[in-house]
Write a structure and sequence with these properties.
Layout lengths: L1 E5 L3 H10 L5 E5 L6 E2 L11 H7 L2 E4 L6 H8 L8 H8 L1 H10 L7 E4 L4 H9 L3 E5 L9 E4 L5 H8 L9 E5 L5 E9 L5 E3 L3 E6 L2 E7 L6 H17 L4 E10 L2 E8 L9 H4 L4 H9 L13 E7 L14 E5 L9 E8 L3 H12 L9 H10 L3
Parallel strand pairs: 1-2, 1-4
Antiparallel strand pairs: 2-3, 5-8, 6-7, 6-8, 9-10, 9-11, 9-13, 11-12, 12-15, 13-14, 15-17, 16-17
Helix pairs in contact: 1-10, 4-5, 11-12
The protein binds adenosine-5'-triphosphate and magnesium ion.
């Protein structure tokens, strides 16, 4: 059986690495050139897109921002998983918000902006501290603007008036003071069975995920049930097949959905070492119609993104429980180059290992590492 993934970056690569032991072959589509490529070597495979679609038994995506004509073409094959509706909801914040509202799922208060002058009423409705997001094509904090005070509004309006807001509206959200960010990665198979990974706690730097800790510390039964209930509502409504990630803001005992990602997710990378079956393996199983694997946690795990940087010593692998996943990309600022998974027997031991790891990285690139290590050391 062969699987085709739209997108040929690190997520396609890690899906392929998980598929091969299952006896499944993976090809990827470079969505810019439409070349069919090997997701690991990136070598172009000598088949047309049409031939690859025909040959595949299941087709999935590594990211949601797929050109519409390509998504439609693949959808016509009847092999696309998850559903086109799920992918389009993840790609468009306006659709995503209406999906959440339609299911009565708590999310961040917002206004949709199709003309810059509507920002005045957004400030009246939501307050002067806003985070303004392009409804399409944003990721890793790109396509976002922040308003800290109403005094900056004229300048921001001038800047945003350059955009075609009628075509691609903005979503203005109230800037929340949440307690922390959590995410739930889970997977649903074609029979409707759902398995969940534990909630992960996510730390961001400059709008981009820097560190995930899984299982998230201090999660009680009530919080977990709340998160799983929201996930199940979404997955069932979308008749979802595959891995889905839901990002939350925790405010007291309440979870607000920030966004959903209809694919394997950076905050699930810890599962490559920290869980019995990793998210990539389970996504492939789900789309190939195979039984899902156990998501049992093997040990507390930290995932550290290596961003815009490749100048470190691989001697860091001498830290017991550390695992490097390198994506083989050319270094660029803000580019995710690879990640490290570090496993330990307890949060405190994990904290110590992060301190050891911090010695290998300059603080300016990894500002959260020491702080997080200290926090974990304090947990029992
Ligand atoms: P990613 O691709 O990393 O998930 P993204 O570009 O899709 O990011 P969001 O997840 O919406 O965008 O926002 C990125 C980060 O910005 C969030 O993880 C959070 O730290 C912060 N953020 C987003 N919305 C809000 C909000 N309403 N209030 C406060 N902070 C926010
Ligand atoms: Mg996000």
């Amino acid at each position: 059986m062969s699987i085709l993934i739209l997108g040929s970056g690190q997520l396609a690569r890690m899906m392929a690495l998980a598929a091969y032991p299952l006896g499944l072959n993976v090809a990827a589509v470079d969505v810019n050139t439409l070349d069919v490529v090997n997701p690991i070597t990136k070598a172009v495979i000598d088949v047309s897109l049409e031939q690859a679609i025909e040959a595949a038994q299941a087709i999935s995506v590594e990211f949601e921002h797929i050109p519409q004509y390509l998504l439609d073409k693949v959808n016509a094959s009847g092999k696309l998983k998850p559903s086109i509706e799920s992918i389009m909801a993840g790609a468009d914040r306006v659709k995503e918000k209406s999906l959440l509202s339609g299911l009565d799922i708590a999310n961040c208060a917002y206004n949709i902006i199709t003309h810059v002058d509507q920002l005045d009423s957004a400030v009246e409705n939501l307050g002067e501290k806003l985070i303004i997001k392009a409804s399409r094509d944003g990721y890793d904090g790109y396509g976002q603007w922040r308003l800290a005070t109403v005094a900056d509004l004229p300048e921001l309006k001038a800047q945003l008036s350059q955009l075609e807001l009628e075509k691609v509206p903005l979503v203005a959200e109230k800037m929340l003071k949440f307690d922390r960010e959590l995410s739930l990665v889970g997977v649903r198979d074609h029979k409707g069975n759902i398995v969940f990974y534990p909630l992960a706690e996510n730390l961001h730097h400059q709008g981009q995920l820097a560190v995930s800790i899984a299982p998230a510390p201090k999660v009680d039964e009530k919080l977990m049930t709340q998160a799983q209930g929201i996930f199940a509502k979404l997955a069932e409504r979308l008749n979802y097949i595959g891995v889905l990630a839901v990002e939350f803001f925790q405010m007291g005992e309440q979870l607000l959905v920030n966004e959903i990602a209809p694919r394997v997710h950076n905050s699930g990378h810890w599962s490559m070492q920290g869980a019995d079956t990793c998210q990539f393996d389970n996504h492939i199983r789900a789309i190939a119609g195979l039984p899902l694997g156990s998501t049992d946690v093997l040990s507390p795990t930290a995932m550290i993104n290596i961003v815009g940087y490749d100048d470190f010593s691989k001697e860091l692998l001498s830290i017991p429980g550390s695992h490097l996943h390198w994506y083989d990309k050319t270094v660029r600022p803000k580019r995710k180059m690879g990640h490290l998974n570090v496993c330990a027997d307890s949060y405190a031991a994990l904290g110590q290992k992060l301190l050891d790891l911090a010695k290998y990285f300059p603080e300016e690139h990894f500002p959260l590492l020491k702080k997080e290590a200290t926090r974990l050391l304090g947990l029992v």
